[in-house]
Amino acid sequence: MCKKQKVLAHVRQDASQNWIIHDLNDHLRDVAKIAKKSARHFSCEDWMEAVALLHDLGKGSEAFQNKIKLKSGFDPEAHIKDGDGQAPHSTHGAAWACNEWGPHIGKVLAYLIAGHHGGLPDWTHTIGTGGSLEYRLKSSEIAKLTKISDELTTELTKNVKMPVAVPEFIFKRKYAHFHLWIRILYSCLVDADFLDTERFMDPEKFDHRGKHSSVTDLKKLFDAHMNSLTEGSARTLVNRIRSDILFQCRMQADKEPGLFSLTVPTGGGKTLSSMAFALDHAVRHNKNRIIMVIPYTSIIEQTSKIYKEIFHDKNVIEHHSSLDPEKETLQSRLSTENWDAPIIVTTSVQFFESLFAAKSSACRKLHNIVNSVVIIDEVQMLPTDYLKPVLYSIKGLTSYFNISMVLCTATQPAITSEIFQKENGEYFSILEKEKCREIMAAPGPEELANQLQRVEVEQMGQFPEWRLVAEELEKYDQVLCIVNTRKDCRELYEQMPETTIHLSANMCGQHRSDCIEQIKETLDAKQPVRVVSTQLVEAGVDFDFPVVFRAMAGFDSIAQAAGRCNREGKLKNDEGNPINGKVFVFDPPKPAPPGLLRKGAQAGTTILSVDTEGCKNLQPQTFTKYFKLYFSSLNSFDKQNMEELLVKDASEFNFQFRTAAQKFNLIDDQRQVSVVIWYEKEIIQKMIETLRYRGPNRDLMRRLQRHTVSIPENAFNEVRESFEPVQGIWCQNADTLYDPELGFVGYDGDIPIY
Predict the structure, then answer these.
(1) Cα→Cα distances 552→172, 425, 485, 613, 660, Å
(2) Which domains does the chain have, with CATH numbers?
(3) How many C-beta neighbours within 10 Å does residue 97 have?
(4) In this structure, are residues 54 and 157 in contact, taking their beta carbons and an 8 Å threshold?
(5) Cis geometry, peptide bond prior to residue 443 (ω within 30 degrees of 0)
(6) Mean pLDDT of the region 454-466
């Protein structure tokens, strides 16, 4: 049957309106080829071949064939025989795998196949039953599926072989990593499915993929850039130390892949030195790409700009937006990122939430993390509410997926120490200290901190009103003040002179970048400039103010703020001798918001009082004391109990994938809505019209994310009438919501979003 008559996987019309058929047999074989290639670096090619050949088995049913003919217009007279007009196709292959290969191998494949469009399912549902994998695999539910002829079933499954390769961690029963392995298998499948579909539906777009430079060629570009940078830089003490750090990073790059730490004081050149290590390490060990994971969107904007200048735009993906259409379509799924470029710059939220995601579009990129070098910048900012599952994922990636990872920071937290407590009171660590190799072993963090000492931290006490803070700031021509929330930032800004610059996440990425460039130019020209900002400038933004004020926060945040002060060590007194910059820490009119920020501020207050000298000079041992104090105040390192959802029943391959994905929210429990706003109004309105009439594509989505703001859902609901949904994306349609200085003004809340 299959040989005589093509079975449709997809169908489209060419420019001459002729119908072109994507044969199901061809689709299954081609998806298998792509998926096997993706799985080669973790030795699971046989798993991917089996799942790829089975994933669209249900498309062979008469009901589905009628549906695709009717929906496409290929055969307007086609009749859908199902009473409800539906023709589900993703359970057939899942049921076949379980029937043929039993409850373990079959169940692993069933998760992937059953979820390849709708997302990885839960094994059981806590509320109701519909949709869970267990429910869908019951004989009574399988009996309801639209039938496929025995002849076609035999034809489509004749080349399917049971997987035999057993990953090392399964053999060792490392249950904490089972769910991660299944997600990466899932990523291989859905990306291969999307790519082969794109190759058929939009061959011109597909042909533009993969046109990137090799890691070896990128290293040549980087080396040339660093040579020119060195030749053009002044021979200052700070630059000499940065050169030493760079040299040490290059020397350590030959070490065997695995887990590394890089502890360098703020201003020591971590951004470029860590990239030097990553590129040299990638070339030495044949890694595919470098992934830079950064805590704040604002730092991504600055870091990716640096990298694009070095490596060119085509080789760098800046991926941070949650700008996903509310309703997925084939076009929106094909437009999602799969991280196929050699340099990826992304956020901690995007990276780690993807590792616990269930949606196909969110998981699509995960297999491209395999065989890469991942730099986790500002590792002290890993979300402590989720620290336990995050560290298990780091351990799994570096142990079993050929990934080298660098934990990079100026204030290394004690995450390789015994900070997790068992029920019997015993403490244990997830990342063993002896397996996490420090790149800057010599000189060590203490010596580097002393060499790069350029500031002094001083406490100022309580300020009951923002007006009083403003009066202090006005004493200085060049000053930066960092506060804890967007609302604090706006209230202080309103007390400042008109020439003051405001920075917060109420401004879109492009707006922030423009302001940051303006501030840098003004500082370089030695002209007066006062800036009020949230902590979005605390890392990765190369400001060099003589004076910085910081509202009371965690001591790590205070140290990050200090990195924006006297950064280049150029401050001198009237006699021309070097002097330190001043960092003033004050208690603001209201405390940090409840939760982790407040606990950090409380621990910061304590450490400032008990270790005054260590705080004044930012000594490394003071950070150790601070993090022990801070960690001891936390209620949980697994706030949403990922262990219960993803590890407890892993020996039976029972996972609650969808529930875990819904609960794993790193920012806060309050859902955020990303909206496209009218900064650079004419430009963005043209992009919105393109989105409206042509739908989403990767290039357009990348440009739109530079003009988005994330706001709490309850705040969005209050101004919903000022936005319109365009292809499932909320876009501004009224003039009153975006201010040229303050950014989005439809929300004046007090939450810890930067």
Answers:
(1) 47, 33, 12, 17, 34
(2) 8-207 (1.10.3210), 215-320+338-447 (3.40.50.300), 454-617 (3.40.50.300), 667-754 (no CATH)
(3) 29
(4) yes
(5) yes
(6) 94
Residue bearing tokens 């409800």: 84
Q: What is the pLDDT of residues 78-125, one digit of tens each?
A: 543 333 446 778 999 999 999 999 888 999 999 999 999 889 999 998
The pLDDT assigned to 423 comes to: 76
Query: Using an 8 Å Cβ cutoff, are 240 and 451 in contact?
Result: no
Q: Which of 447, 454, 535 is nearest to 263 (CA)?
A: 447
If you search the block for the tokens 């085509």, which residue do you land on? 314
Mean pLDDT check: name the lowest of 100-114, 265-279, 289-303, 501-515: 289-303
pLDDT at 1: 37
Task: Transcribe 274-335 into DSSP letters.
Answer: HHHHHHHHHHHHT--EEEEEES-HHHHHHHHHHHHHHH-GGGEEEE------SS--HHHHHT
pLDDT at 175 over 80: yes
Residue 384 CB-half CA count within 13 A = 21
Two tokens at 610? Answer: 């008990």
Name the pTM for this structure. Answer: 0.89
**In sequence order, which residues have a C-beta less than 8 Å from that of residue 566 and are 6 or more positions away?**
454, 455, 544, 545, 546, 580, 581
SS3 category, 749: coil
Give the position of tokens 């070339």.
Answer: 283
> Is the torsion defined by CA of 263, 622, 295, 257 positive or negative?
positive
CB 409, CB 348: distance < 8 Å: no
Closest by Cα among 581, 505, 501 to 548: 581
Instruction: Mark out the alpha helices in 494-545 (DSSP H runs).
Output: 509-524
Least confidently predicted of 449-453, 585-589, 647-651:
449-453
- DSSP bridge pairs for 709: 675
Residue 668: predicted pLDDT? 60
The pLDDT tens digits of the residues spanning 335-348 come to 578 898 899 999 89
Check residue 14 and give its pLDDT: 84
Between 722 and 296, where is the model more confident? 722
Collapse the DSSP code of 353 into the 3-class scheme (helix H, G, I; strand E, B; otherwise coil) and give the result: helix
Residue with tokens 């009438």: 721
Q: Return the DSSP state at 158.
A: T
Crossing angle of helices 270-285 and 215-232, rounded to 10°: 150
Q: What is the percentage of the chain residues whose pLDDT exceeds 90?
A: 55
Residue 567 near residue 541, CB atoms below 8 Å:
no
Q: Determine the average pLDDT of the residues in 163-179.
A: 80
Buried b (16+ CB within 10 A) or exposed e, 674-695: bbbbbbbeeebeebbebbeeeb
